[in-house]
Amino acid sequence: MGNVLTTVKRFLANKNTVTILGVLLAILVIYLGYNYRVKQATTPVTVPYAKQEISSRTLITSDMIGYMEVSSSVVRNSSNLITNANELINNYVSFGTTVPANSMFYKSQILKSNEMPDSAFADIPDGYTIYSLNVNLHTTYGNSIYPENYIDLYFKGIDDTGLVMYGKFIESIKVLAVKDSQGNHVFETTVESRTPSELLFAVPNDMYELLMKAGYISGSSIEIVPVPRNASYSANPGETNVSSDYIKSFILAKSATIPQNTTSSTNQNDNNNDNNNNQ
After folding, report:
1. CA 123, CA 120: separation in Å to the nearest integer?
2. Is the pLDDT at 43 greater than 80, yes or no?
3. Pairwise CA distance, residues 67 & 107, whole Å
4. Average pLDDT, stretch 249-272?
5. Can you tell me the distance from the alpha carbon of 22 to that of 12, in angstroms, rounded to the nearest whole number?
6. Is pLDDT above 70 for 248?
7. 157 vs 22, higher pLDDT
8. Residue 220 near residue 166, CB atoms below 8 Å
């Protein structure tokens, strides 16, 4: 037994032996580490994917979701990738986003119900109001008016002498959205064909009042007609303004101007009068 220990000690005391053992140990460590890394990178992970194309603002349900295996490296290299279907079910596809069929889901595509604004109403400047113009497939030139287009609005009506009035009313007005009768954005999906029902614009408050007054004038068959322009008109838009003082005057002559008194001021004046009477 003593001879064996002596032999082992002499073997380990040899520098060449130690070097060889160190090299072999290093190779073993590298080999095991490499295999571990490869295994980690190639081990499949189950992630949800879209079984069908899911359009913007659609509520995601479990029957829309399938599951596929991808390598763990795909998951590790994408912090935006959704790996848990619970983050999808009963949530919505974000505005302006369509999830293609057979595509994985990403966090930037998904919003909860309380995070879902209407994109047509986002970032409306102070002093502006949304105006909705009723349209149909014919008045939108076969669905040829798109969001972000700049168009003109024409005025059609009958004057007090029975003559036809038709002319440009408002020029260079930006289309914010095109919606169908259910309030869905017409161009947000290619899965179904939607018929336009309204065009949405953001206009200064005084222009909004003028447009609304025009719509309420009775007995004159007034109609606001959208007229599209070419691409350069939208690429180089001018200022949105009323282009006909004659039409504006015609509308104002047939409508009353309501004083801008606030309810609180009126109530305060009434209270003051009551106090004076009591005294």
Report:
1. 9
2. no
3. 17
4. 71
5. 11
6. yes
7. 157
8. no
- List the domains of the chain with CATH numbers: 44-115 (3.90.1210.10), 119-253 (no CATH)
Stronger pLDDT, 268 or 13, i.e. the higher one:
13
Q: List Cβ neighbours of 225 (8 Å cut-off, separation of 6 or more).
A: 139, 153, 154, 155, 156
Geometric angle at alpha carbon 261, from 258 and 264, rounded to 5°: 140
Give the CA angle between residues 93, 98, 101 to the nearest 5°: 105
Which is it for strands 110-111 and 92-93: parallel, antiparallel or unpaired?
Answer: antiparallel
Put simply, whether the predicted model's pTM sits higher than 0.70 gets the answer no
Query: Would you state the pLDDT for residue 182?
Result: 86
Q: Which amino acid is at 209?
A: E
Q: Specify the amino acid at residue 83.
A: T
Radius of gyration of the chain (CA): 35
User: Which pLDDT does position 57 carry in this prediction?
Assistant: 81
The single-letter code of the amino acid at 143 is: N
Q: What does the alpha-carbon distance between residue 48 and residue 82 come to, in Å, rounded to a whole number?
A: 7
- Exposed (0-12), middle (13-18) or buried (19+): which is 57, by Cβ within 10 Å? buried
Q: How confident is the model at residue 163 (pLDDT cuts 50, 70, 90)?
A: very high
Distance CA 140, CA 194 (A): 13
| Cβ-Cβ contacts under 8 Å for 157 (sequence gap 6 or more) | 164, 165, 166, 217, 220, 221, 222, 223, 250
Q: Tell me, what's the pLDDT at 266?
A: 47
Map tokens 């070097």 to a residue.
19
Give first-to-last CA distance, the chain, whole Å: 124
Report how far residue 107's alpha carbon sits from residue 93's, in angstroms, rounded to the nearest whole number.
Answer: 10
- For tokens 């596929």, the residue is 68
Question: Using CA atoms in the order 131, 136, 139, 145, what is the torsion angle rounded to 10 degrees?
Answer: 70
